Amino acid sequence: MADTLTSPVLAGTSNRPNIYHNFIDGEWVEASTGETFENRNPADTRDVVGIFQRSAKADVDQAIDAARQAFLKWRLVPAPRRAEIIYTAAEMLAERKEDYARDMTREMGKVLKETRGDVQEAVDTAYYMAGEGRRMFGPTTPSELPNKFAMAVRHPLGVCAMITPWNFPIAIPSWKLLPALVCGNTCVIKPAQDTPLSTFNLVRTLVDAGVPKGVVNIVTGFGSETGAPMLEHPEVRAVSFTGSSAVGRTIGTTSAKSFKHCSLELGGKNPMIVLDDANLELALEGALWGAFGTTGQRCTATSRIIVQKGVYHKFVHSLVDRARKLRVGNGLDESIDMGPAVNEKQLQTDLEYVEIGKQEGAKLACGGNRLEKGDHAHGWFMEPTVFMDVNPKMRIAQEEIFGPVVSVIPCENFEDAIQIANNIEYGLSSAIYTRDVNKAFSAMRDLYAGITYINAPTIGAEVHLPFGGVKATGNGHREGGIGAIDFYTEWKSVYVDYSDRLQRAQIDRPE
Ligand code: NAP
Ligand code: MG
Q1: Which of these is catalytic: 187, 262, 299, 411?
Q2: Cα of 191 to ligand 1 centre, how many Å?
Q3: Could you say which of 228, 232, 307, 393 would form a disulfide bridge with 274 (CB–CB 3.0 to 4.6 Å)?
Q4: To test ligand 1's pocket by mutation, which of 218, 220, 299 has the most ligand atoms within 8 angstroms of CB?
Q5: For 86-140, what is each residue's pLDDT tens digit?
Q6: 280, 313 Cβ separation under 8 angstroms
Q7: What is the distance between the alpha carbons of residues 86 and 209, in angstroms, rounded to a whole number?
Q8: Residue ranges of domains in the chain
Q9: What is the C-alpha separation between 9 and 31, in angstroms, rounded?
């Protein structure tokens, strides 16, 4: 077995799947527990995508120690040089895009055009963050005293721990790793147990691009066993988490005890408003893509559609008609529109919410059933589901389902729509379809969310803009763009006195 540890993967045979290792201090290693777990294809659970290390605190501690050592050198590598490595990684990722997209579809189910987009998001982030290596600007400003110079510079934090979800398994890790690295931090990442392969692929690319040993470490395993120990470790200076609000609350409170910086990107229940004057065809196209893309398993998924009464019936009728025509199946088949739920538990949740919606008195307009015959026999498939006549107070209109279940809510007018949209625990993304510029600008101001789209669905963020939300969606940080640089650096103010005498701020005032 020993010789296999120098390679990232122990190649499988047709009967034996590949075995993947942790990457700690520049070495591909087994977990201290000697235990592994299987990663299965949700479109066909007979297909084992790979065997991954089930790591524990000892592995996490080792990775953090490696990252702490590596930080001593990495922080001194000039940022433009660090950026060159990130740039190389961008080019390698672009070359590997198709392979990585296929791996991702196989491990978590979303269709190929979306997994290609997921890898592309990492490519875009890498190019953007490589550019930051020659910026990372800080202010220089006049001192209040003569012959004195003042500026603020960005410093890296040290070891950063990252815990990520399964729905964007290359894109989300890239939003965390790439800015952290260009700023001079070192990283330990724990991907979701459903998608270790994609994050493994990203880390492997960074290593191939020249990231030195110990600077990036990946430790796979379960949240409670592998994620939790990161939060308590005194050497971890920052924790970046994307996932559910429930787990996020624990991450935030635990990290706070040792004053770690903590970025939380959490759940959503994103509204799309369709007003009477909307381009209805465009709104329908957006609704389908927003609600059923990634099988509704996006934090920014369109899960509430608030439709003004003048177009309500026409809109719902057409939406249902089109939702019924979506082809559900294995995302590796290019003709498929919607893949499976990521796992059995998520499918059960989706089906439970269908029952909740019915009991609450919403009208099930289409879908609602598991698909388990023929091509669907071995996967976690369900029909695209539309509830209509939903009351905004119902649980299906308030709680994040994270599946292909959308609630259509009728509304009277613009003001009513905004009120329904905002009257929710979350605040990630939002959208409005209207041709009235006054209403569009009012919505940009009044929708209480981190992101607002005009005449586009709630999904489709670009990497150079701030990404994140308000209320239970997060704790005020933003990923993407310059917000990420802000999170992964700390300001140091520097005063240089060249007067050759003691000058006292606030006390020595010119006559
Ligand atoms: P999750 O259950 O909260 O898990 C997220 C990550 O946390 C996983 O890696 C998980 O590991 C780990 N984890 C679980 N319990 C933990 C613990 N006690 N200590 C440390 N780590 C722990 O979320 P998910 O089901 O993967 O993802 C779906 C959720 O993510 C949705 O709520 C969605 O809205 C949200 N999301 C938000 C954004 C955003 O940017 N706002 C983006 C994407 C997704 P295991 O999986 O191994 O248990
Ligand atoms: Mg899987």
Answers
A1: 299
A2: 9
A3: 307
A4: 299
A5: 999 999 999 999 999 999 999 999 999 999 999 999 999 999 999 999 999 999 9
A6: no
A7: 7
A8: 9-136+155-266+474-492, 270-454
A9: 14
